[in-house]
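User: Predict the structure for this protein chain, please.
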Amino acid sequence: MDRFQAMQVFTRVVDANSFSRAADSLGLPRATVTNIIQNLERLLQVRLLNRSTRRLSLTQDGAAYYERCVAILADVEETESSFRDAASGPRGRLRIDVPASLGRLVLIPRLCDFHTRYPELEIAIGMTDRPVDMVREAVDCALRVGHLPDSSLVARRIGTFFLVTCAAPSYLERHGEPRTIAELANHSAVNYFSSLNGRTLDWDFVVDGHVTEVKMKGVVSVNDGDAYLACALQGFGMVQMPRFMALPHLESGALREVLPQWSPAPMPISAVYPANRHLSPKVRAFVDWVAELFAACPLLGGTAAVDYCCSYEGKPAGNTLRSVVEQHNLAESAL
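Assistant: Here is the predicted structure, written as structure tokens:
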């Protein structure tokens, strides 16, 4: 029994949810596909599929075996492609996932440049603030903001998220402008809650080199960056948002920065990918390109971004911001 072929047939049956469609796509007789699955179940001594006249469904053992098969087949494909595509350049389908705001404002406007460099790549971009299961959803690479939990994913730091505290003039006219962090207790915020656990994210400020968290009250909570910005522009409350999103509205006067002497703590931006994509030419090409893109962006890169954010409109915008970023860089260089 060819176990590798059996894995391919089994995953194709599950994906197609049909023996007949799987047989057609593989160019095999339906009876051959049926025999391969039966022999595979006999070899493993478990039932993989529940069959009826109308539908197929995975058993618990079948679901576990399917996930392992998908990972093994992906490993083989990535290993082969790393050698096959070394001379001709990356090709095939590249599935990436990015936060919606980064995708819309940074990635999509420069996507033609990536396509020009790598015309043989088919790019599928998911844009959501919901954390994805990269293995289960077959995502090759994702951009993530914030400190990453320990996992089997490989991560590469590509930039820094700088945030700004701001509000619409209409809100400040109604409620006044806070002059100290303590005065925030008398104000409302547009709150942002995690799509992963539903928890409302606290604000923070860098005070004397240390991060101070602040819990804000509010009447509106969202879990989407564009909705967060829209609510702020309508005057629902104050927000802490990425400076690259807020900048056009700060320059137009639709938003005003508040408490500029205390900056929110910056957050790292990382490209993450499963360990079995480490040798993939297409993932390596994308990560190198997006790192180059972020390095050239003054609000998402390295030293240039710190210099810019520390002198917004010619004014110091948090004199401890530079020291915090330098601490992040020192910690990373020690790893």
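The chain has three domains: 3-84, 92-158+267-301, 163-257.
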